[in-house]
Each structure stands twice: as structure tokens, then as C-alpha cells.
Design brief:
single chain; disordered N terminus; binds fe (ii) ion
Length: 170
């Protein structure tokens, strides 16, 4: 794995409070780091532990679904309006669509099936690429655009609470 966390060093870290409201970029960046650690845990489970791997894969799918939905409904429209960078936002939405397609395949798959690990791995690679673009390009532009990041962060946190995977998945 060639994953490193070089991008996190560049970002100023405002309001590092665990309990208070977080600005949107801090919240989304923490989500990225959390899901990255889940992918790493999945990788470490190796060829055994189908049950734990299945649980972990579903957790990854759930976290990503909450995150991506809140981004699409709240963060992306605000960044699009403020930056007018349609190409950047369109690309992000298309990457989300690819991720959602894989997520749907993982949710409905049998954990023992041959391609299960490959699906999780490809999802991890796709997300890794997507996160690099968000943290390297979109978030700095959003910061420059002087959005109300605290209000957006609160809206994103509230929306994430509401989103669940279909109960049949878990
Ligand atoms: Fe994101
Ligand atoms: Fe995203």
C-alpha cells in the first residue's frame, strides 16, 4: 500500500474540539482518516476472518454512505456556488457514483465470494484517490471562498446522523 497521510500536514487545524461544533473541512477530513484506518484494518485481517471482514466492510460502506451523501447534499452545492468550479465538483460527483456502485455490490455480496476482497480493495483505492483530490484541491478552494464552514459543519453532522444503510444490509 502506498498510502501516506502527507496531505493532512498542509491543512491548518482550526478548533480541535472533540465535543463542540466542528467546521465542515475538519469534520470531513476526520471522516477521511477514520475510513482510511478501517480500510487498513480490513487489509490486516488477511485471508481469514470472513465474519469480521464482512462486518468491517459493511461498516466502511455505512461510513462512506453517510459521508458521501452529506457531501453531495450540503457541502458540494455550497462549494459549487462559491467557487463556480463546475469541473471539479462534477468530477467529485462522478467518483461518488463509482464508489456507490461498488458499495451496493459489497452490501449485497456474500463475504465468502471470490471477488469480495477485490471489491473492498478497489473501493479503498478509489476513495484514496478521491480523498487526495478533496483535501489537495477542493478543501483549500473552499477555505479561500470564505464559506460559513462552521454552519456547514453543523448541517453535515446533523445529516450524517439521519442516514442509515438499508436494514437488510446489516
Ligand atoms: Fe470526502
Ligand atoms: Fe467526496
Amino acid at each position: 500500500m502506498s498510502t501516506t497521510s502527507q496531505t493532512s500536514g498542509k491543512m491548518p487545524k482550526p478548533i480541535p474540539t472533540a465535543t463542540g461544533p466542528q467546521d465542515a473541512i475538519t469534520l470531513l477530513t476526520e471522516d477521511h482518516e477514520h475510513v482510511k484506518s478501517l480500510f487498513e484494518q480490513y487489509e490486516e485481517l488477511g485471508d481469514r476472518a470472513h465474519v469480521s471482514k464482512h462486518k468491517l466492510a459493511l461498516q466502511i460502506c455505512e461510513e462512506l454512505t453517510k459521508h458521501a451523501t452529506a457531501e453531495e447534499e450540503i457541502f458540494y452545492p455550497a462549494v459549487r456556488a462559491a467557487t463556480k468550479d463546475d469541473d471539479m465538483l462534477d468530477e467529485a460527483v462522478v467518483e461518488h457514483a463509482s464508489a456507490k456502485d461498488l458499495i451496493a455490490q459489497i452490501i449485497s455480496a456474500d463475504p465468502g465470494e471470490e471477488l469480495f476482497d477485490a471489491k473492498v480493495k478497489v473501493l479503498g483505492e478509489l476513495i484514496d484517490h478521491h480523498v487526495k483530490e478533496e483535501e489537495g484541491e477542493m478543501f483549500p478552494k473552499a477555505r479561500k471562498a470564505k464559506l460559513d464552514l462552521l454552519a456547514l459543519g453543523q448541517a453535515i453532522a446533523a445529516r450524517k446522523e439521519e442516514i442509515e444503510l438499508p436494514p437488510t444490509a446489516i
